[in-house]
Structure of NAD(P)H-binding:
Amino acid sequence: MRVFVVGANGQIGRHLVKMLKESDQHDVRAMVRKEEQADEFKADGIEAVVADLEGAVSDIAAAADGCDAIVFTAGSGGSTGLDKTLLIDLDGAVKTMEAAEEAGIARFVMISAIQANNRENWSEKIRPYFAAKHYADRELMNSSLTYTIIRPGGLLNEPGTGKVKAEANLERDSIPREDVAATIMAALDEEATYNKGFDLVSGDDTPSEALSKL
């Protein structure tokens, strides 16, 4: 499976691209915003393309052409304003869904946020971020795509443990970014995750074990 990673230069994205490159089951194409980022991936032997989530849907579709799955792990980041939250986390995600449909790519994995599906549990400090994730997820569920929505808890930069917990509704907790990437890898062709969304935190099962229970 050739996997198109949107947000490849992000922290989860970089873990995922590395795992896909080392996999004997998948290939990877990294989508980034800047030529220098693409050059860095290419120097590591990774296929990379430059495209902008604030640009045209057709440009994203062209960048993804020939891939079998899309992973959306892009985000505006905590240092930007609410305008970028709307343009990247919501509209950029929806544009990528439209691009997938335009390019004939059915498989789509979305990285969301824990409890984004439950308005009453949104953090007051970042409600606009949760709203963006909520409606992007809803658009994906209403699309023609074979989706998986992964809603990780608080993201950590510490090394992964290789153990996670995945359920439809979990208490807020944390998880290393590396373990989120490993769960994306496990979800790509795990039919138990098709057309489902779930919360994800650190736990006691391998990603494959946790996902098979969904």
About this structure: Residues 183 and 207 are 5 Å apart (CA to CA). The chain has one domain: 2-152.
